[in-house]
């Protein structure tokens, strides 16, 4: 089946060697259907978050504590990773450290291949999206099925997630109904309940037969060696219950030191993500089936993914690794609301994506993303672990300049600009010319409707009011001389 | 451990260390003042009932003597005929497996069915490890007597919560688990299985039970 032409366009853009954020975002912002779908959903989630947090006695202190716990874990990550390793091994599991996406894919494919595993049920995991794991397993000949409803819909539509928590936020009911009708060869039907039940019946059969379960991890508890996964549907529980072999792919930054730290994290995660107090299911697992047990994995593999995280850890952006992938900053962001997730060109969209995608995949390749923010601070306000996203975005913009990643034209313009600002005479001349020119252009209506050259971009989507008759410098001079 | 590219060393270098830490670091303290949302002196069964109801579970408070007739009445109004139960002393003490059988239901214990057979059951009636009042959650703990699949695979789950099961807050649950040891699988259940993936339309009963019924014995 061919995928959605829109998605196809985004994917091609995203895979271009240098991602062109401008062209993709302009296209996305012009797509009314997309904007409506995204806006409706994220505004509801953002409102839900604010409401439920306002009911807590002390949400700010709790967020500060959550940030401190994650920061502490990052500052001592070597210690806690070793503790996780020791505890998982003591519980009968095996620990694998993967330095790159390629290495992680190879390790997991090898686990599946060497044990002759055929059917894989995979629950939603951003880390697996990051390394495109499902694709690698399919290429190795496995029957891989995404079992989260949203991810399943993306899989059969050959689409990509556009939101960290609600992956098909960009899709409307009609497109899903059309997709199911053609995929399952059933009559078209627009009832969300029956569409969901169609997927349930199909996936339940897969659960029953699967021999490999794959999950991600929301948290990794150092002092017990457990993985914690939260979800609403029950498909992640299926992954840790039915199959003989369980693989959990988890980023090394997901660690919390103690089991009791979960009481802080869980109180914030679902509230920040969807406005729920708790997700329906919170699973803690990591031990192999005990003697006499009749379900659960016989083999457990924890694959700890670095893939650029240790480089971020070493630098000034360490704090960004606190992220618990709740998606609150996406929901709060005025830019995300207008362009959706695909326009960011990576699996991590929104403010946090604008920040970590360049860090993961090279600032030179994604140098437009740090500009994809009005720096309004809504993301920082929303973040449950208090990552100062606007500050880091400004620092990335600074890095772009100091590393000369911006274009030669831009550098030349700023050099001219700087020399103009240094000379009061040139500044005054330019200001006088500008005032004269803009007033001339706005004589009829009081508005500047159209500008030539580089100014055209400015007036393309908005008008500019006519400048005042006197410049500030003139008014200041007049005031001083008592006129 | 399998670490072909030396991730552990990279992490240590990133933190500016050449040697492992000499002693365990001290994480930030979890203060009750900031983190705790419910206290032991609260009316836990009532708080649980309110929160679990808000989570869309159906909760009934029942005297132990009235439990069996009410359970049978509930199951008779549902379509459930084949019922799975864990090996549980408390369920036996309450006379549930025998009582359901007498009422004409097909009752199978977890130790008598295979995981595959469980997919054809309509309902599971279980006890719980704990119930967290503040979040309105049931906590299940896997064991040879009580499989993970019981509260997951059949489309209906009926849980029996007794007085001694209640904990005020998640803090108390994790402190207890730390002390009693985590078994292979812990699940905290806070409602029926649900999704809102399709245009935020709420649909229950996706992959887990769509109907969660709770009897609270105060």
Short description:
Chain A is an alpha/beta fold and 483 residues long.
How would you describe what is shown here?
The complex is a heterodimer of chains A (483) and B (218). Chain A is an alpha/beta fold and 483 residues long. Among the domains of chain A are: 72-310, NagB/RpiA/CoA transferase-like (Rossmann fold, 3-Layer(aba) Sandwich), CATH 3.40.50.10420; 424-480, no CATH class. Chain A is built from 23 helices and 12 strands. In chain A, the strands form 3 sheets. Chain A has a 6-stranded parallel sheet, with helices on both faces. In chain A, strand 5 (219-221) and strand 6 (226-231) form a beta hairpin. The mean pLDDT of chain A is 93. Chain B is an alpha/beta fold and 218 residues long. Chain B has a single domain, classed as NagB/RpiA/CoA transferase-like (Rossmann fold, 3-Layer(aba) Sandwich), CATH 3.40.50. Chain B is 29% helix and 23% strand. Chain B has helices at residues 7-14, 32-35, 44-54, 64-77, 89-93, 96-102, 115-118, 170-180; strands spanning 58-61, 82-85, 106-109, 123-127, 130-132, 137-141, 156-162, 166-167, 185-189, 194-195, 203-204, 211-217. In chain B, the strands form 3 sheets. Chain B has a 6-stranded parallel sheet with strand order 1-12-7-4-2-3, with helices on both faces. A 4-stranded mixed sheet of chain B has the order 8-5-6-9. The longest helix of chain B is centred in the N-terminal third of the chain and has 14 residues, at 64-77. Chain B is globular. The model of chain B has no long low-confidence stretch (mean pLDDT 96). Chains A and B meet through helix 3, helix 4, helix 5, strand 1 and helix 9 of A and helix 1, helix 2, helix 8, strand 9 and strand 10 of B. Strand 9 (281-285) of chain A pairs antiparallel with strand 9 of chain B.
